[in-house]
Amino acid sequence: MSDRATPAAPARTAAVIPAAGRGIRLGPGAPKALRALSGTPMLVHAVRAMAASRAVSLVVVVAPPEGAAEVRSLLDEFPLGERTEVLVVPGGATRQESVRLGLAALPDDVTAVLVHDAARPLVPVDTVDAVAAAVRDGAPAVVPALPLADTVKQVEPREDGPEPVVATPDRALLRAVQTPQGFDRATLQEAHDKTVFDGEGATDDAGMVERLGVEVVVVPGHEEAFKVTRPLDLVLAEAVLARRRANDGF
Ligand SMILES: Nc1ccn([C@@H]2O[C@H](COP(=O)(O)OP(=O)(O)OP(=O)(O)O)[C@@H](O)[C@H]2O)c(=O)n1
Ligand SMILES: C[C@](O)(CO)[C@H](O)COP(=O)(O)O
Protein backbone atom coordinates (compact mmCIF):
# COMPACT_ATOMS: atom_id res chain seq x y z
CA MET A 1 0.00 0.00 0.00
CA SER A 2 1.35 3.45 -0.89
CA ASP A 3 2.11 5.79 2.01
CA ARG A 4 1.33 8.77 -0.20
CA ALA A 5 -1.69 10.71 1.10
CA THR A 6 -4.68 10.92 -1.21
CA PRO A 7 -4.78 14.47 -2.62
CA ALA A 8 -7.51 16.53 -0.97
CA ALA A 9 -10.49 17.28 -3.18
CA PRO A 10 -10.44 20.93 -4.33
CA ALA A 11 -12.55 23.20 -2.15
CA ARG A 12 -15.77 24.26 -3.85
CA THR A 13 -18.00 27.19 -2.94
CA ALA A 14 -21.75 26.99 -3.53
CA ALA A 15 -24.45 29.62 -3.16
CA VAL A 16 -27.80 28.73 -1.60
CA ILE A 17 -30.57 31.16 -2.56
CA PRO A 18 -33.69 30.98 -0.38
CA ALA A 19 -36.48 32.10 -2.72
CA ALA A 20 -39.53 30.39 -1.22
CA GLY A 21 -41.09 33.41 0.49
CA ARG A 22 -44.47 34.89 -0.43
CA GLY A 23 -43.50 38.55 -0.30
CA ILE A 24 -46.42 39.57 1.91
CA ARG A 25 -44.90 42.99 2.65
CA LEU A 26 -44.58 43.68 -1.08
CA GLY A 27 -48.33 43.30 -1.54
CA PRO A 28 -50.55 40.98 -3.61
CA GLY A 29 -49.08 39.16 -6.60
CA ALA A 30 -46.80 36.29 -7.53
CA PRO A 31 -44.23 34.98 -5.00
CA LYS A 32 -41.71 37.81 -4.54
CA ALA A 33 -38.77 36.04 -6.18
CA LEU A 34 -40.75 35.60 -9.39
CA ARG A 35 -41.79 39.25 -9.73
CA ALA A 36 -40.10 41.17 -12.52
CA LEU A 37 -37.46 43.87 -12.28
CA SER A 38 -36.91 45.52 -15.65
CA GLY A 39 -38.70 42.56 -17.26
CA THR A 40 -36.53 39.87 -15.64
CA PRO A 41 -37.60 37.87 -12.55
CA MET A 42 -35.95 39.03 -9.32
CA LEU A 43 -34.66 35.48 -8.78
CA VAL A 44 -32.84 35.51 -12.12
CA HIS A 45 -31.07 38.74 -11.11
CA ALA A 46 -30.07 37.09 -7.82
CA VAL A 47 -28.80 33.91 -9.49
CA ARG A 48 -26.79 35.98 -11.98
CA ALA A 49 -25.33 38.02 -9.13
CA MET A 50 -24.01 34.84 -7.48
CA ALA A 51 -22.83 33.29 -10.75
CA ALA A 52 -20.93 36.50 -11.57
CA SER A 53 -18.45 35.58 -8.84
CA ARG A 54 -15.69 33.27 -10.06
CA ALA A 55 -15.69 31.77 -6.56
CA VAL A 56 -19.16 30.26 -7.09
CA SER A 57 -19.54 27.16 -9.28
CA LEU A 58 -22.89 25.88 -7.99
CA VAL A 59 -26.12 27.72 -7.16
CA VAL A 60 -28.92 25.96 -5.25
CA VAL A 61 -32.22 27.79 -5.61
CA VAL A 62 -34.81 27.03 -2.93
CA ALA A 63 -38.15 27.52 -4.68
CA PRO A 64 -41.66 28.02 -3.33
CA PRO A 65 -42.78 24.52 -2.17
CA GLU A 66 -45.37 24.08 -4.94
CA GLY A 67 -43.38 25.95 -7.58
CA ALA A 68 -40.08 24.09 -8.02
CA ALA A 69 -40.92 22.83 -11.53
CA GLU A 70 -41.99 26.33 -12.61
CA VAL A 71 -38.79 27.82 -11.22
CA ARG A 72 -36.68 25.15 -12.94
CA SER A 73 -38.17 25.96 -16.36
CA LEU A 74 -37.92 29.69 -15.69
CA LEU A 75 -34.20 29.39 -14.92
CA ASP A 76 -33.70 27.24 -18.02
CA GLU A 77 -34.94 30.24 -20.04
CA PHE A 78 -32.05 32.32 -18.66
CA PRO A 79 -28.95 30.11 -19.07
CA LEU A 80 -25.81 31.16 -17.18
CA GLY A 81 -23.04 29.46 -19.12
CA GLU A 82 -21.19 26.27 -18.44
CA ARG A 83 -19.15 27.41 -15.43
CA THR A 84 -22.16 27.50 -13.08
CA GLU A 85 -24.46 24.60 -12.27
CA VAL A 86 -27.95 25.48 -10.98
CA LEU A 87 -30.06 23.09 -8.86
CA VAL A 88 -33.64 23.78 -7.78
CA VAL A 89 -35.21 22.29 -4.64
CA PRO A 90 -38.55 22.97 -2.93
CA GLY A 91 -38.46 25.23 0.12
CA GLY A 92 -40.19 25.27 3.49
CA ALA A 93 -42.48 27.34 5.67
CA THR A 94 -39.73 29.60 7.08
CA ARG A 95 -36.51 31.08 5.72
CA GLN A 96 -34.55 28.93 8.17
CA GLU A 97 -36.23 25.76 6.90
CA SER A 98 -35.68 26.77 3.27
CA VAL A 99 -31.95 27.29 3.87
CA ARG A 100 -31.75 23.92 5.62
CA LEU A 101 -33.38 22.24 2.59
CA GLY A 102 -30.91 24.02 0.31
CA LEU A 103 -27.96 22.80 2.39
CA ALA A 104 -29.28 19.23 2.16
CA ALA A 105 -28.98 19.38 -1.63
CA LEU A 106 -25.27 20.28 -1.67
CA PRO A 107 -22.86 17.68 -3.04
CA ASP A 108 -20.05 16.38 -0.79
CA ASP A 109 -17.24 18.38 -2.44
CA VAL A 110 -18.72 21.74 -1.35
CA THR A 111 -16.71 23.16 1.57
CA ALA A 112 -17.93 26.76 1.68
CA VAL A 113 -21.47 28.15 1.36
CA LEU A 114 -22.83 31.60 0.58
CA VAL A 115 -26.46 32.07 1.63
CA HIS A 116 -28.08 34.84 -0.39
CA ASP A 117 -31.65 36.19 -0.32
CA ALA A 118 -33.43 36.14 -3.68
CA ALA A 119 -34.85 39.39 -2.32
CA ARG A 120 -31.41 41.07 -2.69
CA PRO A 121 -31.18 40.82 -6.48
CA LEU A 122 -28.75 43.67 -7.10
CA VAL A 123 -25.81 42.80 -4.84
CA PRO A 124 -22.60 43.76 -6.69
CA VAL A 125 -20.09 41.03 -7.51
CA ASP A 126 -17.39 42.79 -5.47
CA THR A 127 -19.45 42.21 -2.32
CA VAL A 128 -19.96 38.52 -3.18
CA ASP A 129 -16.22 38.16 -3.84
CA ALA A 130 -15.28 39.89 -0.57
CA VAL A 131 -17.45 37.51 1.47
CA ALA A 132 -16.19 34.43 -0.41
CA ALA A 133 -12.56 35.54 0.00
CA ALA A 134 -12.93 36.07 3.75
CA VAL A 135 -14.31 32.53 4.13
CA ARG A 136 -11.54 31.15 1.91
CA ASP A 137 -9.02 32.96 4.14
CA GLY A 138 -10.27 31.03 7.17
CA ALA A 139 -13.20 32.91 8.74
CA PRO A 140 -15.93 30.40 9.65
CA ALA A 141 -18.72 32.98 9.23
CA VAL A 142 -18.76 36.30 7.36
CA VAL A 143 -21.51 38.88 6.88
CA PRO A 144 -21.56 42.01 4.72
CA ALA A 145 -23.01 44.98 6.58
CA LEU A 146 -23.38 48.76 6.57
CA PRO A 147 -23.44 51.36 9.34
CA LEU A 148 -26.92 52.70 10.17
CA ALA A 149 -28.25 56.07 9.05
CA ASP A 150 -31.10 56.19 11.57
CA THR A 151 -30.88 56.17 15.35
CA VAL A 152 -32.36 52.92 16.69
CA LYS A 153 -34.64 52.61 19.74
CA GLN A 154 -35.44 49.46 21.64
CA VAL A 155 -39.13 49.53 22.62
CA GLU A 156 -41.67 47.61 24.60
CA PRO A 157 -43.96 46.51 21.74
CA ARG A 158 -47.66 47.56 22.11
CA GLU A 159 -50.53 47.11 19.68
CA ASP A 160 -52.84 49.56 21.41
CA GLY A 161 -50.96 52.82 21.72
CA PRO A 162 -47.57 54.55 21.84
CA GLU A 163 -44.71 52.14 22.60
CA PRO A 164 -42.44 53.04 25.53
CA VAL A 165 -38.75 53.37 24.62
CA VAL A 166 -36.59 51.06 26.70
CA ALA A 167 -33.11 51.96 25.39
CA THR A 168 -31.12 53.74 22.68
CA PRO A 169 -28.22 51.48 21.62
CA ASP A 170 -24.97 53.23 20.63
CA ARG A 171 -25.41 53.56 16.86
CA ALA A 172 -21.66 53.45 16.25
CA LEU A 173 -21.68 49.83 17.44
CA LEU A 174 -24.54 48.70 15.18
CA ARG A 175 -24.48 47.38 11.60
CA ALA A 176 -27.32 46.58 9.19
CA VAL A 177 -26.57 43.09 7.93
CA GLN A 178 -27.06 41.98 4.33
CA THR A 179 -26.44 38.85 2.26
CA PRO A 180 -24.64 36.88 0.91
CA GLN A 181 -23.53 35.56 4.28
CA GLY A 182 -20.57 33.20 3.87
CA PHE A 183 -19.75 30.12 5.93
CA ASP A 184 -17.48 27.19 6.31
CA ARG A 185 -19.99 24.49 5.33
CA ALA A 186 -19.52 22.30 8.41
CA THR A 187 -20.08 25.28 10.73
CA LEU A 188 -23.30 26.32 8.99
CA GLN A 189 -24.57 22.75 8.93
CA GLU A 190 -23.90 22.39 12.66
CA ALA A 191 -25.78 25.64 13.31
CA HIS A 192 -28.80 24.39 11.35
CA ASP A 193 -28.65 20.98 13.02
CA LYS A 194 -28.50 22.41 16.54
CA THR A 195 -30.52 25.61 16.46
CA VAL A 196 -34.24 25.36 16.85
CA PHE A 197 -36.49 28.43 16.77
CA ASP A 198 -40.24 28.44 17.13
CA GLY A 199 -42.56 30.27 14.74
CA GLU A 200 -40.91 32.46 12.13
CA GLY A 201 -37.45 30.91 12.57
CA ALA A 202 -34.06 32.61 12.66
CA THR A 203 -33.94 35.89 10.76
CA ASP A 204 -30.41 35.24 9.50
CA ASP A 205 -27.92 32.38 9.34
CA ALA A 206 -25.05 34.19 11.05
CA GLY A 207 -27.21 34.57 14.16
CA MET A 208 -27.51 30.80 14.34
CA VAL A 209 -23.72 30.43 14.09
CA GLU A 210 -23.31 33.03 16.88
CA ARG A 211 -25.41 30.74 19.10
CA LEU A 212 -22.77 28.02 18.64
CA GLY A 213 -20.22 30.41 20.14
CA VAL A 214 -18.39 30.68 16.81
CA GLU A 215 -17.04 34.11 15.81
CA VAL A 216 -18.83 35.92 12.99
CA VAL A 217 -16.99 38.76 11.24
CA VAL A 218 -18.26 41.70 9.19
CA VAL A 219 -16.96 42.91 5.82
CA PRO A 220 -18.25 46.06 4.09
CA GLY A 221 -21.68 45.65 2.53
CA HIS A 222 -23.08 47.73 -0.34
CA GLU A 223 -26.08 50.06 -0.68
CA GLU A 224 -27.18 48.19 -3.81
CA ALA A 225 -27.44 44.95 -1.81
CA PHE A 226 -30.63 46.28 -0.18
CA LYS A 227 -33.51 43.85 0.39
CA VAL A 228 -36.60 44.30 -1.76
CA THR A 229 -39.21 44.14 0.97
CA ARG A 230 -41.83 46.88 0.47
CA PRO A 231 -43.28 48.49 -2.69
CA LEU A 232 -40.93 51.51 -2.54
CA ASP A 233 -37.96 49.10 -2.78
CA LEU A 234 -39.16 48.14 -6.28
CA VAL A 235 -38.90 51.78 -7.33
CA LEU A 236 -35.33 51.93 -5.99
CA ALA A 237 -34.40 48.64 -7.69
CA GLU A 238 -35.69 49.87 -11.07
CA ALA A 239 -33.71 53.11 -10.61
CA VAL A 240 -30.50 51.17 -9.82
CA LEU A 241 -30.97 49.01 -12.92
CA ALA A 242 -31.65 52.08 -15.09
CA ARG A 243 -28.46 53.70 -13.77
CA ARG A 244 -26.43 50.54 -14.49
CA ARG A 245 -27.82 50.41 -18.04
CA ALA A 246 -26.92 54.07 -18.57
CA ASN A 247 -23.43 53.66 -17.07
CA ASP A 248 -22.23 50.45 -18.63
CA GLY A 249 -24.83 49.12 -21.02
CA PHE A 250 -25.80 46.39 -18.47
N1 LIG B 1 -40.43 30.30 3.82
C1 LIG B 1 -39.52 31.12 3.32
C2 LIG B 1 -39.53 32.51 3.62
C3 LIG B 1 -38.57 33.32 3.03
N2 LIG B 1 -37.68 32.79 2.16
C4 LIG B 1 -36.71 33.64 1.46
O1 LIG B 1 -35.90 34.36 2.37
C5 LIG B 1 -35.52 35.59 1.77
C6 LIG B 1 -35.71 36.75 2.75
O2 LIG B 1 -37.06 36.77 3.14
P1 LIG B 1 -38.07 37.99 2.97
O3 LIG B 1 -37.43 39.14 2.32
O4 LIG B 1 -38.73 38.18 4.29
O5 LIG B 1 -39.09 37.40 1.92
P2 LIG B 1 -40.56 36.97 2.15
O6 LIG B 1 -40.67 36.01 3.29
O7 LIG B 1 -41.02 36.52 0.82
O8 LIG B 1 -41.24 38.38 2.52
P3 LIG B 1 -42.45 38.68 3.52
O9 LIG B 1 -41.90 38.46 4.91
O10 LIG B 1 -42.81 40.10 3.23
O11 LIG B 1 -43.56 37.71 3.17
C7 LIG B 1 -36.34 35.77 0.50
O12 LIG B 1 -35.49 35.60 -0.62
C8 LIG B 1 -37.40 34.71 0.63
O13 LIG B 1 -37.83 34.17 -0.62
C9 LIG B 1 -37.68 31.41 1.88
O14 LIG B 1 -36.87 30.94 1.10
N3 LIG B 1 -38.60 30.60 2.49
C1 LIG C 1 -31.01 37.59 6.16
C2 LIG C 1 -31.39 39.05 6.18
O1 LIG C 1 -31.53 39.52 4.86
C3 LIG C 1 -30.26 39.83 6.83
O2 LIG C 1 -30.59 41.17 6.94
C4 LIG C 1 -32.70 39.31 6.91
O3 LIG C 1 -32.56 39.01 8.28
C5 LIG C 1 -33.88 38.56 6.30
O4 LIG C 1 -35.04 38.94 6.99
P1 LIG C 1 -36.49 38.68 6.36
O5 LIG C 1 -37.48 39.19 7.36
O6 LIG C 1 -36.56 37.20 6.14
O7 LIG C 1 -36.54 39.45 5.10
Explained architecture:
The chain has a single domain, classed as Spore Coat Polysaccharide Biosynthesis Protein SpsA, Chain A. It has 250 residues and is α/β, with parallel strands linked by helices. The chain has 7 helices and 12 strands. The strands form 3 sheets. Strands 1, 4, 5, 6, 7, 10, 11 and 12 form an 8-stranded mixed sheet that branches. A two-stranded antiparallel ribbon has the order 2-3. The protein has a two-stranded antiparallel ribbon with strand order 8-9. The longest helix is centred in the C-terminal third of the chain and has 18 residues. It starts with 11 loop residues before the first strand and ends with a helix. InterPro entries: IspD, IspD/TarI, IspD/TarI_cytidylyltransf_bact, ISPD_synthase_CS, Nucleotide-diphossugar_trans.
